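Worked example 4.2. Below are the chains of a multi-component assembly; read each line carefully before continuing.
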Amino acid sequence: MTSPDTAYEELVSGPIPWVGRTRRWKRYLPERIIKAVLFFCSIVSIFTTVGIVSVLIFEAALFFQEVSIVEFLTNTKWTPLFASKNFGILPLVTGTILTSMGAMFVALPLGLMSAIYLSEYAPDTARQIVKPVLEILAGIPTVVYGYFALLFVTPILRSISDDISVFNGLSASIVMGIMILPMVSSLSEDAMRSVPRSLREGAYALGATRLEVSTRVVIPAALSGIVAAFILATSRAIGETMIVTIAAGQNPTFTFNPFVPIETMTAYIVQVSLGDTPTGTLEFKTIFAVGLSLFVITLSMNLLSQFIVRRFREVYE
Amino acid sequence: MADRIPGRFDRRMRRRRLEGQIFHVLCLLSILVGLGMLAALLLNIFMEGWQRVNWSFLTSFPSRHPEAAGIRAALFGSIYVIAVAGTLAFSFGVAAAIYLEEYASRNWFARVIQINIANLAGVPSIVYGILGLEIFVRFLALGKSVLAGGFTLALLVLPIVIIASEEALRAVPSSIREGGYALGATRWQTIWRLVLPQAFPGILTGVILAVSRAIGETAPLIVMGALTFVPFTPDGPLSRFTVLPIQIFNWVSRPQEGFHEAAAAGIIVLLVVLLSMNALAVLLRNRFQRRMEG
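Applying the procedure described above to all two chains together yields the following structure tokens:
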């Protein structure tokens, strides 16, 4: 049997008695050129990935010729820009973990509850208004959130407790949580809404309250989607740059204290880019090693999230 | 019910109802927290910056004196960079989507491209900055120019355009294509005259969203090497430049109160542009949809 695709190919290349040879050429040559051009455009994305991976690996390899990987992964001091240099990425990693976990502490409960409200409680009209408004939050540039964290949230926090420095992980975490909230809520809501009505109706028929239906039927059924949303949002928080650069400080410290200035991996890359470190020096090459670590972490989280969706998705017919 | 002896069932039922109500209120509250934060953010910025937004703020170069500082250089820089990035992302993104949806057979190669695009969408934007620095600035020797910045942002938003366009193309019913083929149209004629016009609103929405993402990006351009203090407007594709978000970042990180007001004013300009673009996207989509139905 010939599929439409092969039939088309035969039409292009095979003998067709009723069309002259030149006419066929005029008609189908442009088709092939167009197809080739479109194909080229579609592999630009492959080039991008190859470019990212090779740039990071190539430059990081130069860095690791001078600094051992063991030192990079175990030293608890990160002072490449100082006279006595230490190249331990751990302080940047703890800074990143602190801010992104802090952000998830905010975004996880708020996002999940918002999603439950939108999917299970809200009347349709409320949902149609609230959802786009919430999505405005996702469209606000991160530099704006940085402004908000440093000049609005931090002063409030500092008026509550004197222990909090001007630059601190807490303020950045809270604001970053607000930033990723729409992502958590809209992805989780999509997962919850794809749970079929009949499941809910079955539970209601058994006398369950709305709370019980939400937490014991809908959430378990949508769990893979919700978990994937959390992982994606965490990965987004890890890669977030401007909020932490502006509000969390540029002070790599091996600590989980949210009140003191810290530095994340992304903020360090910005710090070096803004400074006058000459390109080609070992100091400058640190950004590729840090960038590679960042890329590996976020990529593995994204892959994990895709895997969870594929592997654990509950399919209802 | 009222005159029944309140047994264990009724007590438990009352408790379950109460828990449900508490939960309902909590869910509502968490939505309100999100909306409240949005309101606080917008209000705070508006109060801080609105008296600085005027014609001279838009047309002045940055300055050491906060009250004289303006966003002229940043505004022009943003327009130039976005023009480059938007054009490239639109043409390459739509072309790629057409190939993937209309031409590619469903084999391993198409799957690899799809997975690749999904993962590119999750790469932190700052990594694109490193890519831009190495490939465009150094390897292609474009310098830290408008062109290099535009290319970097184009790669960054390309996955958004591709994914949105693919969805738009997928939504076009296959009967439209079959109709075209039945009339003897070639594949490209069918796509160009029948499929694309139908998918256009969806594609357009995706492109506008991608462009508004690109307008707000700061980190990749800083890493790529955009300037932070620019007292000139770019005079060509190879000129150095700054963009609005970087200008805002620069002002936020200064200690003087006056610069914070300038930052808030810059944010107002940025948000007005972004929100009107989003409104435009919604409007265009609605209009095209109505035309197609009618």
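Take a moment to check your reading of the output against the notes. Chain B touches chain A through 88 residues (CB under 8 Å). Residues 8-52 of chain B form one domain.
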